[in-house]
Amino acid sequence: MDALSLPRASWMTEDLVLLEEQARRFIASEYVPHLEAWNEKGMYEREVWTKAGAAGLLCPAIPEEYGGVGGSFAHEAVIGRELSLAGFDSFGAPLHSGIVAPYILHYGTEEQKARWLPKLATGELVGAIAMSEPGTGSDLQGVRTTAKKSGNGYLLSGSKTFITNGQHANLVIVVAKTDPKKGAKGTSLMVVETDDADGFRRGRKLKKLGMDWADTSELFFEDVQLPAESLLGTEEGQGFAQLMNELPQERMIVAIHAMAMMERALALTIDYVKQRKAFGQAIIEFQNTQFELAECKTEATVAKVFLDHCIERHIAGQLDTTTASMAKYWMTDLQNKIVDRCLQLFGGYGYMEEYPISRMYRDARVQRIYAGTNEIMKLLIARSL
Ligand SMILES: Cc1cc2nc3c(=O)[nH]c(=O)nc-3n(C[C@H](O)[C@H](O)[C@H](O)COP(=O)(O)OP(=O)(O)OC[C@H]3O[C@@H](n4cnc5c(N)ncnc54)[C@H](O)[C@@H]3O)c2cc1C
User: Fold this and answer.
1) Which residues, at least 6 apart from 137, have a Cβ–Cβ distance to it below 8 Å?
2) Which residues have CB under 6 Å of ligand 1?
3) Is pTM beyond 0.90 here?
């Protein structure tokens, strides 16, 4: 699927091209045949995770000593794009590999890394990050979940909502206040292994506008007793700084997803308008269709060039929050516009569930909301003015 006429990005090495081919083949043979069933059921099987782990598609940026393949964010970018191009927008692997695992790699103690990372790489553990609560999302300082000192460990209490991977996750990084009086400085990240955690409860898988089979859920922690080693790192009160450092990567993951969905929408639409006829000619013969798609292709091309620039800077450790926020906000806005224009060219079929473009239209909307709303992105960009 290559709807854009761009040369390969300079960060795409030969190894990454091989990874791209391997991921594409694996997804086509192991996952795509089940896509409709998962959409129908609104859920996918737990073994999807272990299969991805066995195929080397989880945690590729984690060093080999912790069970990964020792790659970089470029590996995450390639795999995330392939999942989206194949219609796997609801599978939370990019969050698991690109958001949860890096918190542990960057801030965990040696024991924490050795304990959790290898199991995240195989899919034995499925990761989630629980920031949002019923009362607060954008304003993370307003988090009310607490982790109070209790004996040698902590007592975790609170509820989280909208949590991606919420039904399958068994390693949840929970944003909690270890010192509620200190606001942001009293915030810590607590890592909860949920399999044997008394007092932990999963709520329902939430019904949503799109991303039908993503297991976005509520999670409840009622006086969950945690050992001292559940605190990520060794020092309390570091949670906010840790979040701020890692959020640019989360934004890049969303931008990569947006780009892949634009490419997919364009490819599907170009294919459709060449086949569908009206007034004795293919839809693509109408000048309006050509102009619409010419504009979409131009804007998607501009987006891809910017995205590649951001990925390259991120791999070099030079991507700043401002630029990552620009990528997240502008590319997800553009994704929504392009998918909408493409859907229009499908006519009534674009509104029918069996045409992927209709699902892409629904799935696109949340991209402007999660990982920090696009309004919050603009606030972050404005700080650089
Ligand atoms: C499908 C899905 C998956 C998600 N996955 C996760 C997950 O895995 N983990 C997790 O922790 N969270 C997750 N979220 C939550 C998501 O990150 C939040 O919904 C998002 O951050 C917005 O928070 P909120 O819903 O509380 O909205 P609010 O913060 O209440 O915002 C409401 C509106 O006010 C605007 N607003 C807020 N503050 C300002 C401001 N200062 N200036 C201007 N406008 C402002 C917002 O932009 C928005 O338009 C997910 C959400 C969805 C829908």
Assistant:
1) 131, 162
2) 129-132, 137-138, 162-164, 208, 211, 216, 366, 369-370, 372-373, 375-376, 379
3) yes
